[in-house]
Design brief:
Largest sheet: 5 strands, parallel
CATH topology of one domain: Rossmann fold
Number of helices: 40
Low-confidence stretches: 92-97, 131-144, 152-163
Helix content: 55-70%
Radius of gyration: 32 Å
Structural class: alpha/beta
CATH class of one domain: Alpha Beta
Number of strands: 10
Strand content: 5-15%
Length: 856
């Protein structure tokens, strides 16, 4: 009997179908399937997708799978597969996984649109997918070329800069998540999407976070997400802590309710139904006693049932009668049969011919998925011979493996196969001793290096793992470092840290030059994450290594990082001292670019302390050297900060000129976050000069840039500035709309301080519209947040506004209390800022209204 047939699970299929119906109606859905190994999770998900494909002619399906060997360290692995399919990696994988070939045609018709969407609203996703790489299918390339998309994709892919030398991320993981969300939502406007993720227990942290982000936000779209996992693996945790997938589905269940289809547990009635359905897929004369005994022996475990029946057939204990019907023997001693699934697997493997078994054993070293050409290389056999063995005997006859997909990298064909179940791979791998494993891992790594010469990024994580398992620590450390750099380029910070940690652990202590580079890379990631303690620890270690190397260039790099950390933690005196030391070291090293970075940082530190004139001198010098050295990004950053020095001293014409120059350079880099910041400041300049139409034009451009980037914090900031401009113009309706949009984003991204600012401004809008009750409620909500954050500046402003409202409504006592509270904050805690005049004026009006002219 074939193990590819799907039987049973009618209730579960019906439940999944009900969720799909809601998604197709525009109510986005997320569902999880939970069950132990072999319980049929993947089969259920595939059958559901197959039925959905047949029932809905416009449905597009994207599938991704996590990897038990490398998946936890391979950033966005399942989503890279999904995005690859949606943007052109149309190989045979979907067909082999049971999804109709029709899906390939549907996706291909969507290719030009999806390619353009990727460029226009999700450009940073391009580095995650093979859309312009060597693994995209020739037909897909032709479609993209015909639509004029291929050149634009290539231009985006060629854009590079030294990411780990940046003190600020131009793109963060937040941007990646938002771009992915925007891409899927826009694509679903044309055709609904069903996204499936297999084996979430092996998912990398970035994929789990992205899935959570999508699951929380996909509420009004034609998209359904389905993932499966093993609860025992989830319960075991990860790295000594809670498993990220457990946090994911627990939180999403709190938001969406019961979204887990549970396949765990033994239900005798349902188990018997499954046994009957499976046995009856072929003509048979099996008795009720045999069926009952099979149910009891396997406890209804789907994989155990399938494997045990196959085992009985191979041993000749189940045979066909003269009419071709399967029948049981007259007497079957169930006590002599394997009592566990692993026993059945051993029995089946033991009956393989030696050549077949050797092929599978070699393949097991790669994990559940493997490459036929790698196996052929290790066995010294022709590729065609190994493919024939895998596809014929081991697939069709023994049903132990299956073909998954094919790729072409350069002129090399790569044939992907997989074990029918991971338990089979685990058994075979477990039969190898440590010496055999080490040899096979090293040989597998060497074969992969040769196969993937033209696409090395696809295998760096696997190579690091194979070489570490082989005990080849130098190569393992090398590839772990490359894996960390790749993860960093994909803004997968957790995975980057994990790989850098592994590389450092493998690297000999005396290899100080490589340790320096690894620690610099890790320190940069810690900086992006805001992990200041870890950052400081790495900088201490870096200072020791750079000193031991007696390399002034390395010392300058470290001191620049230390100065920036001191700036970020408001240790200004230390920051100034350290950056000056860095500049001196850069001069000793003869490194003009490092020197320029020092001047730029010195200017930013002085700017932070309000010394605009001094800052300007150093920033001009940094800009001049950066121009001579051809560092466009440093030039742009210097000019942008120069704009601030002029803006702060109200030299608005000069400020606008610097912002425009910086914008042009950010466009050349390109750095969309830098572009958005320049546009925002250009809007601020125009607003200050009273050119509100120009201000709105710049703000609108900044808003579009933030949305393309997926920078929701930036979007909320621009929306707030737009709202303030419309408020100044007296358009309270539009001002309210902008601030409500900003408020929604700030609540979504947990920006509590920004949330309070929007609530305060919405209170002003309501007050000016004459809705006093709404205004008071909004002010009180803002005050509650500001008090919880100890946000004194915001608190003083909102109390001032609340005082004005109370004064307008005739509640002079409340007005006086609010104004005095605001004044007290500004007097005692803020060194009486200039804004205190508003409180004094308010108190004077209140005294005048009471007839107390001396007090007024």
């Amino acid at each position: 009997m074939s193990d590819t047939v799907f039987v049973g699970r009618k209730a579960e299929l019906a439940r999944l179908t009900a969720h799909l119906d809601k998604a197709l109606a525009g109510k986005g859905q997320i569902v999880f399937i939970s069950g132990e190994a072999g319980s049929g999770k993947s089969a259920l998900m595939a059958e559901f997708a197959r039925n959905a494909q047949m029932s809905h002619p416009d449905l597009i399906i994207g599938q991704g799978t996590c990897n038990a060997q490398t998946g936890m360290g391979e950033a966005y692995l399942p989503f890279r597969e999904i995005l690859g399919v949606l943007t052109g990696n149309l190989e045979t994988s979907l067909v082999e996984r049971g999804i109709a070939a029709e899906n390939t045609d549907r996706v291909r018709k969507l290719l030009a649109r999806s390619g353009l969407l990727l460029i226009d609203i999700a450009p940073d996703l391009i580095k995650l997918v093979p859309v312009a790489g060597s693994v995209i299918s020739p037909l897909s390339k032709a479609v993209l070329k015909q639509a004029g998309v291929d050149k634009r994709l290539g231009q985006v892919i060629e854009q590079k800069h030294d990411l780990l030398e940046l003190t600020d991320q131009a793109v963060s993981q937040e941007h990646i998540f938002e771009q992915c969300y925007n891409f899927l939502v826009k694509l679903a406007e044309f055709q609904p999407l069903l996204i499936t993720l297999d084996d979430l227990q092996w998912a990398d942290a970035s994929s789990v976070s992205l899935l959570f982000y999508l699951g929380r936000r996909l509420t009004d779209q034609r998209i359904m997400l389905v993932g499966n996992f093993r609860p025992d693996e989830i319960a075991a945790g990860r790295s000594g802590g809670r498993h990220p997938t457990e946090q994911l589905y627990t939180e999403l269940m709190r938001v969406h309710g019961d979204i887990v289809v549970d396949l765990t547990g033994f239900d005798p009635v349902e188990a018997r139904k499954f046994v009957d359905a499976y046995l009856d897929t072929e003509p048979n004369r099996f008795s009720a006693d045999f069926r009952a005994a099979l149910t009891r022996h396997t406890r209804g475990h789907p994989l155990f049932i399938v494997e045990l029946v196959s085992d009985l057939q191979e041993r000749g204990l189940l045979a066909k009668d003269e009419e071709g019907r399967w029948m049981e023997p007259e007497a079957l001693d169930w006590t002599r049969l394997p009592a566990r699934i692993d026993g059945v697997i051993r029995s089946r493997v033991d009956r393989l011919e030696s050549g077949d078994r050797a092929t599978l054993t070699t393949a097991s070293v790669s994990g559940e998925d493997f490459i036929a050409e790698v196996v052929a290389t290790l066995q010294g056999a022709p590729n065609r011979e190994v493919v024939q063995r895998l596809s014929s005997d081991l697939s069709r006859r023994h049903q132990l493996v299956e073909a998954r997909e094919m790729q072409r990298i350069g002129g090399q064909r790569i044939s992907h196969y997989g074990f029918r179940h991971q338990l089979i791979q685990q058994f075979l791998y477990g039969e190898l001793d440590n010496v055999e494993r080490a040899y096979l891992h090293e040989d597998t790594a060497t074969a992969l290096e040769t196969l993937y010469q033209e696409s090395p990024d696809d295998i760096v994580v696997a190579l690091a793992w194979h070489y570490e398992m082989a005990g080849v620590t130098a190569k393992a450390a090398h590839y772990a470092r490359l894996a960390g750099e790749l993860a960093a380029s994909r803004h997968a910070n957790d995975e980057a840290i994990e790989h850098f940690n592994r590389a450092l652990a493998l690297l000999p202590t005396q290899d100080m030059s490589d340790r320096l580079e690894l620690l610099l890379a890790r320190e940069a990631i810690y900086g992006w994450q805001g992990n200041r303690a870890a950052q400081a620890n790495d900088l201490d270690a870096l200072a020791t290594i750079a000193g031991a190397l007696n390399n002034p260039g390395a010392q300058a790099r470290v001191e620049l990082r230390r100065a920036n950390l001191a700036r970020l933690t408001s240790n200004i005196a230390i920051a100034l001292e350290t950056v000056q030391r860095a500049v001196s070291l850069a001069e000793r090293a003869g490194n003009a670019l490092l020197e320029a970075r020092g001047y730029a940082l010195l200017g930013r530190i002085l700017l932070q302390t309000g010394k605009d004139g001094e800052a300007r001198e150093w920033l001009e010098l940094a800009n001049e050297i950066a121009r001579e050295e051809g560092d466009l990004r440093l030039q742009a950053l210097s000019l942008y900060d120069l704009g601030h020095t002029y803006f702060g001293s109200t030299q608005l014409t000069e400020a606008a000129q610097r912002y425009l120059e910086a914008q042009a350079l950010f466009e050349a880099v390109p750095d969309r976050r830098g572009i958005a910041n320049c546009l925002l400041m250009l809007g601020a300049v125009q607003r200050q000069t009273g050119n509100h139409d120009d201000a709105l034009r710049f703000y609108d451009q900044a808003l579009a840039t933030c949305r393309t980037l997926g920078w929701r914090h930036g979007e909320s900031y621009v929306l707030s500035n737009l709202g303030n401009t419309y408020f100044t113009l007296g358009d309270f309706v539009q001002a309210g709309e902008n601030h409500r949009d900003a408020l929604s984003i700030r609540r979504d991204v947990a920006d509590r301080q920004g949330e309070a600012l929007n609530l305060d401004t919405l209170g002003l809008v309501a007050q000016f519209q004459g809705v006093a009750l709404d205004a008071r409620s909004l002010y009180e909500e803002a005050l509650a947040i500001q008090r919880s954050l100890d946000d004194l500046r915001g608190l003083a402003y909102t109390l001032t506004h609340l005082g004005l409202l109370a004064e307008e409504t005739g509640d002079l006592a409340a007005a006086e209390t609010a104004q005095r509270d605001a004044l007290a904050i500004r007097d005692r805690r803020l060194s009486r800022s200039s804004a205190a005049i508003d409180n004094l004026a308010g108190l004077a009006r209140i005294a005048q209204a009471r007839g107390d002219l001396p007090e007024a």
